[in-house]
Write a structure and sequence with these properties.
- With 650 residues, the protein is of the alpha+beta class.
- 51% of the residues are buried.
Length: 650
């Protein structure tokens, strides 16, 4: 590792960016030149003693012990230590799921993990059987599901195929959650330490918050695609590099490869990143308009190269998403109105040391969307950092970016403690193309990253001052970090047990009934509120088809309509769901019976399967018997063989 020659006698615990990075790492500094009293420019660390050249001496001038001379605290070892801490923290957060990945799920809501596990099993079929990656009819048969419009996590699922084959999709799910948290923190640490701040401690603090913020913890139990943000710091860095690139086409190609990969992890997060980069650069150029003359040419060339290559790579997948089978345009009004309450920015998140689930119940759309929840202490600390470093163009641009997206995250109606106050600016944007498919509360994820970067800059500034001012700044900074971050220290995610996959499925007894173009119908029929049948299919790597499921699709199955959760309305699905909820057995008339039998024929049903331990199993069994006659107990399920329905109807 190379670095500048030392300027002072000593610089304890100081890390300079690598010399190899300086040609590109100064891009942000070139766009946003700091004032003389601010944090050092990117790629420059004052008073730095190169770590590889430090003398092994004690502070009193005596020679260090022999073991200290043999074992040096090298930059590589520092990096590995930080990465190890991040991995340990991620294992701590997911520890309760690791105890039993297949039998445990988030205690407050369990549908999304089953959906992700289904998508992971689909990746197995893509790799082993060459199935079409962007659409499947293995659930919601026969209409199928547009996977490009459902975040099928192909860029995560395909690399995880060996794990899914060996250990099952439930294990792959918790591996992705663990690596998503640790990887995001590590990615931001790497970029910050090489290209923004000169001290690894500052980068570690910023990376920690970006990877383990309350918003990330909120999504961890449900959305590995959202918390897998490890490419975002590199995308942001490459965009900044383009502003001063001497090889913009090459840098644009590199950016295109990152963008394409991120598109197959989560397109919404990619869109947020693009918007954040645009707002940040605009905020910089408003303050330093003269920089535009040097930045616009390489930026235009690089972004053009990126758009051409990424557009070519993503053209067909995006066509499938927006014009292919079961494509939808825009989200339902319910999800589109998901916004943060203003008070959510000042409360700690539920999965944190100071969090309280009951206190947060009306401040977020649900527990998987706690996208703010910084707590009073961190919110005030972030404001204090901006005031302290207000002379820095970079800090002012970050503050403007964070505030802008915090306001957008409030949604169409601005509220305070669940009381509507007035219409928000999101009302003006919600119907625009692409933005009509955005969940507005998630804009606060950008604010979280901004706060992480501000924390890194504050630590960098405190640790580069000298004399009495240096000691005072370090003390105040450490105290502020403890007060701000302690209430939101991550805690293990709360989980609950879920029913195991029936032995009838795992022992392959279902194969005696279900042909390749037929469906196995779990009872109740899979839906947003009941995803156990999706887990059954995922456990077999989707070797059988199922009707229904939890997914986004156009209303009534008509391609191009607005989106909704689930497929066409189902008479038998609604009937059995009501029985499963209430435990009451209805008396069916001939019309209801004929409608349900028609749906079973439409699904090409081969067998209906009801677990013996299913909640309200007895009322469900009696209801199904009114439709198709007596069932048969086989292993741990009730089975109804309905393959003869088509013959009887003929």
């Amino acid at each position: 590792m190379t670095s500048a020659e030392p300027r002072g006698e000593s610089a304890p615990d100081t890390d300079a960016p690598t010399g190899a990075s300086r040609g590109t790492a100064t891009a942000v500094a070139d766009v946003a030149t700091p004032e003389p009293t601010t944090v050092p420019a990117v790629g420059v660390a004052p008073d730095v003693v190169p770590e590889g050249r430090r003398t092994a001496t004690r502070r009193d001038g005596a020679a260090a012990p022999a073991w200290a001379r043999r074992w040096r605290w090298t930059p590589r070892r520092k990096d590995l230590t930080v990465y190890g801490i991040f991995l340990f923290a991620a294992l701590w957060v997911t520890s309760q799921i690791w105890v039993d990945p297949a039998g445990r799920v988030a205690s407050l809501y369990s549908s999304d993990p089953a959906q992700v596990q289904f998508f992971l099993a689909h990746s197995v079929r893509v790799v082993l059987h060459g199935e079409f990656p962007f659409y499947t009819d293995q659930f919601n048969y026969p209409d199928g599901v547009n996977l490009m419009a459902n975040t099928a996590v192909l860029a995560l699922g395909i690399p995880m195929v060996p794990v899914t084959l060996l250990f099952g999709p439930a294990v792959s799910f918790v591996v992705l959650v663990t690596l998503g948290l640790a990887g995001t923190a590590a990615g931001w640490y790497h970029v910050l330490s090489r290209h923004l701040v000169g001290r690894r401690l500052a980068a570690a603090v910023g990376g920690w918050f970006c990877g383990f913020s309350p918003a990330m913890l909120s999504h961890a139990n449900w959305h590995p695609n959202i918390i897998s943000q490890f490419l975002l710091p590199f995308i942001v860095w490459r965009v900044m590099v383009l502003t001063r690139s001497t090889r913009p086409v090459r840098d644009g190609v590199l950016l295109a490869l990152l963008v394409t990969t991120q598109a197959f992890i989560n397109e919404e997060i990619l869109l947020f990143t693009a918007l954040a980069c645009g707002v940040f650069l605009t905020a910089v150029l408003v303050q330093r308009p003269a920089r535009w003359s040097a930045a616009w040419r390489p930026l235009a060339k690089g972004l053009s190269a990126c758009a051409l290559l990424a557009g070519a790579l993503l053209a067909y997948p995006l066509w499938v998403q927006f014009a292919g089978p079961m494509a939808y345009h825009g989200l339902s009004a319910t999800v589109r109105d998901y916004g943060n309450d203003i008070a959510a920015f000042f409360a700690p998140g539920s999965p944190t040391f100071g969090g309280n689930e009951r206190a947060n119940v009306n401040l977020a759309p649900n527990y998987s969307e706690e996208n703010a929840f910084f707590g009073w202490s961190l919110a005030l600390t972030a404001v204090g950092i901006v005031i302290w470093l207000r002379r820095d163009v970079l800090v002012r641009a970050l503050a403007a970016t964070g505030a802008f997206f915090a306001v957008l995250s409030l949604g169409e109606r601005i509220s305070w403690w669940d009381r509507d106050l007035f219409t928000g600016p999101w009302e003006l944007l919600v119907r625009l193309p692409l933005l009509d498919a955005v969940v507005p509360t998630r804009f606060a994820l950008i604010t979280s990253v901004v706060i992480g970067v501000l924390l890194a800059l504050a630590v960098q500034r405190a640790w580069t001052l000298r004399g009495a001012e240096w000691r005072h700044a370090r003390t105040v900074t450490v105290a502020a970090l403890v007060i701000a971050l302690l209430p939101i220290v991550p805690m293990p995610l709360k989980v609950t047990s879920r029913p195991p996959v029936p032995d009838f499925i795992t022992a392959d007894r279902w194969r005696e009934y279900v042909g390749p173009d037929q469906t196995l119908v779990p009872i109740p029929v899979p839906s947003m509120g009941n995803t156990h049948g999706m887990r059954w299919a995922a456990a077999t790597n989707l070797d059988f088809k199922i009707p229904g499921g939890y997914f986004l699709a156009p209303r009534n199955g008509t391609t191009g309509d607005p989106g909704r959760f689930g497929g066409r309305p189902s008479g038998i699905g609604e009937l059995l769901d009501e029985v499963a909820t209430t435990g009451r057995t209805p008396k069916l008339n001939d019309r209801q019976r004929r409608r349900c039998l028609d749906e079973l024929r439409h699904w090409r049903s081969a067998v209906l399967v009801l677990p013996v331990r299913q909640h309200h199993a007895e009322p469900l069994r009696r209801t199904v018997e009114q439709l198709v006659g007596p069932g048969r107990r086989e292993l741990d399920v009730w089975v109804w063989d309905v393959r003869s329905l088509d013959a009887r109807s003929a």
